[in-house]
Amino acid sequence: MQSFVFAFNAIMPLLLLALLGYFIKRVRLIHTGFIESLNNFIFYVALPVLIFVTLANLDDFSMMNWPVLLFSIVMVIMVTFIGGFVAYIKDMPKGYRPVITQAFYRGNFMLIGIPLALRLGGTEALAILALLNAFLVPLTNTLSIVVFKVYNTHNEIQKNIWKEVLNSSIKNPLMIGIIAGVLAMIPGGPWPWIRDSITLIPDTLDFIGVTATPMAMIAIGAQFEMSRVRVLASPIVVGVIGRLVFVPVLVFGLAMLMSIRFDFTGAWVALIALFASPIAVSSVAVTKGLNGDDELASQLVLWSTALSVVSLYFIIVLFRLLGYI
Question: Cα(324)–Cα(315) distance, rounded to whole angstroms?
């Protein structure tokens, strides 16, 4: 019961924020132009700052469990290919395919995974997850750029895809935040001195970063159209089941098999946060910024977040019964 209460309390505030966005749009307190501007702020300012602050505040990589990191990277790449294959064999419209593919690998391991890890495994689990994030945040954002750049505005394969990916990677706000955050981790660099001496800078960045989650959920709720649920039912079902059922079963099943040879002790909580969390809130702003179908992305985030209360409950109970957490 405590596990269910925790999962419920961790996820419901996000749903309530989305409900707030839906309500204030319906009573016309905000309009479409404001939502568009809010999405731009999230993608170009709030999310890059949040990524920078998360990475810049890590001390070093001494606690890294390298086999777990390698396993996580391979799993993220694997489920990306599987997501794309599933979208293809289900004959989804080409405009839906990158959004569904992203749903498989882009979990909410920053906004839900981090508090989940802290609650289940304490500061040690949080430290492991933060170090994994230092590698997986760049990977997932790079994968998003690749997946969406595979299709142009006419949903056709681009000829110079790798050139386009490289240019987009350099200019993408999320990648800029990642690069800046990694540079800030360099020993002897200016960031530790700035953080300790000129506190107004990190304090300001913290204020900006914490706006990413609430503003993103409000924007998602404001974009939600109940009339579109029936039209988007098939991709919603595929994306949500893929993220909440298929990915955890595949990843945890392989991890349990490999645990005979590799030591996953202390990392199970981080793996739950990475691969059992619902679809990332940031996927909507990323989809919008990369000219994808942000309406479908919004529906996927909302439904996966709501249903993850159930899926996380069963996963947490199972792992406790097995003695992993």
Answer: 11
User: Which residue reads 């999962």 in tokens?
Assistant: 7
- What are the start-end ranges of the H helices in the chain? 2-26, 32-41, 47-56, 66-89, 97-105, 113-149, 161-171, 173-184, 190-197, 200-210, 212-223, 233-241, 247-258, 268-275, 282-289, 294-322
Q: What is the pLDDT of residues 284-294, one digit of tens each?
A: 878 887 778 88
CA 218 centroid distance within chain: 17
Is the separation of the CB atoms in 213 and 38 below 8 Å?
A: no
Copy the structure tokens of residue 305. 């977040």
Asked whether the beta carbons of 25 and 221 are under 8 A apart, the reply is yes
Residues 296-307 pLDDT 10s: 998 898 888 878
Q: Per residue in 152-211, pLDDT tens?
A: 544 444 455 556 555 655 667 877 887 888 788 787 788 888 888 888 999 999 999 888
Tokens coding 165: 């990916």
Q: What backbone torsions phi and psi does residue 293 show, to the nearest 5 degrees?
A: -85, 90
Asked whether the predicted pLDDT for residue 283 surpasses 50, the reply is: yes
State the fold for domain 2-322. Na+/H+ antiporter like fold (1.20.1530)
pTM value is 0.73
